[in-house]
Amino acid sequence: MYAVLSVTDKTGIVEFGAGLRKLGASLVATSGTAGLLRDAGMDAAVIGDLSGVPEMMGGRVRAFHPSVFGGLLYRRGNASDEAEAHQHGIPRIDVLACNFKDLVADDGIAGALDSIDIGGPAMLRAAAKNFPSVLPVVDPADYGEVLRALGAAGGEVAAVDPAFRRSLAAKAFGRTCAYDRSIQRILDTTGDRE
């Protein structure tokens, strides 16, 4: 089991990572989150270790790889998906913790464009789409409940209460929707400040 952690709000992420490790998860994180986990004494690979492709273009490209998105999206128990995952060495990602801040128009359009998170919302949407098999966690306030639910389910996402999994997915899609609205507001209101 892999858990991918990519968070701007790092509240509780060390404790969450430690709890996931106790449940047998291998931690994979974006560089800043991985550094924090390592500083706390945990093994944490960076996403490039999982995909075999380093971060590129100033961090703009790091998560877009079949090893990440395939691991989030493949349907567990689907013979074709399982065979392709095995054939291509795609890991089973069971938990995605991902959050990001709404954008503000302080730096005009150019600054806003540089700050737009593409990979985080895309990973979150992928995990939420596959909520029967993946826990998409967008709110640090949910970390404790996720750990309790996973622990009670013996670390098996499919054994976690379906209503809880669905509620995490709904919250994740709500967050990506709000994030897109923050981008729209900036593009609508920054005028000529390019």
From TrEMBL:
It comes from the Bacteria. Residues 1-138 form the MGS-like domain. SMART domains: MGS. PROSITE patterns: MGS. CDD domains: IMPCH. InterPro entries: MGS-like_dom, MGS-like_dom_sf, PurH-like. PANTHER family: BIFUNCTIONAL PURINE BIOSYNTHESIS PROTEIN ATIC, BIFUNCTIONAL PURINE BIOSYNTHESIS PROTEIN PURH. This is MGS-like domain-containing protein. It comes from Streptomyces varsoviensis.
